[in-house]
Amino acid sequence: MNQLVHKCQMPWWLTVIIVIETLPMFLGPIFALNNPAFLGGPEATEVGFATWLYTARNFAVGIAFVVAYLLRSAPMLFILILIRLLTDLVDGPAVLLFGMASNEIRLIAIFVIGYYIPALIALRFFWKQMTSPIATE
């Protein structure tokens, strides 16, 4: 069966993971547009070019997540979650490296419990969906 035609059955917990992975794609840009210091540093007083780039790219990925979820497409969701995981594997340490976290333990916990572990669980689920005999016929 063609992967594009095959609709993935999603348990409730996977929907929760997808919401956890997707929400920051919309909330982050809203915070950035309303708070110039979010991306521009403590001395920033107006929204700059980097904020608009960040906003455009995150909204694009967020919309792709919504479309992939509505299509129930395991390959699309797999790739989007993988991209998000790779990005978060850089973002978390970068925030720590540049000293932008007010509470390092909380930041690490948020990234590990809120992003890394759920992403790995979802990736495993979608990989099984994509490689199962029913999906590959």
Write the layout of secondary structure elements.
Layout: H1 12-34, H2 37-40, H3 49-71, H4 74-97, H5 104-131, H6 133-136
Helix pairs in contact: 1-3, 1-5, 3-4, 4-5
Number of helices: 6
Average pLDDT metric: 88
| General form | globular
Number of strands: 0
Beta-strand residue percentage? under 5%
Q: Whole-number radius of gyration?
A: 17 Å
Helix content: over 70%
Strand and helix order: HHHHHH
Sheet of most strands:
none
Could you say which structural class the secondary elements and strand pairing correspond to? mainly alpha
* Contiguous runs where pLDDT drops below 50 for at least 5 residues: none
What is the end-to-end distance?
4 Å
Number of domains: 1
What would the keywords be for this entry?
mainly alpha, 77% helix, 137 residues, 6 helices
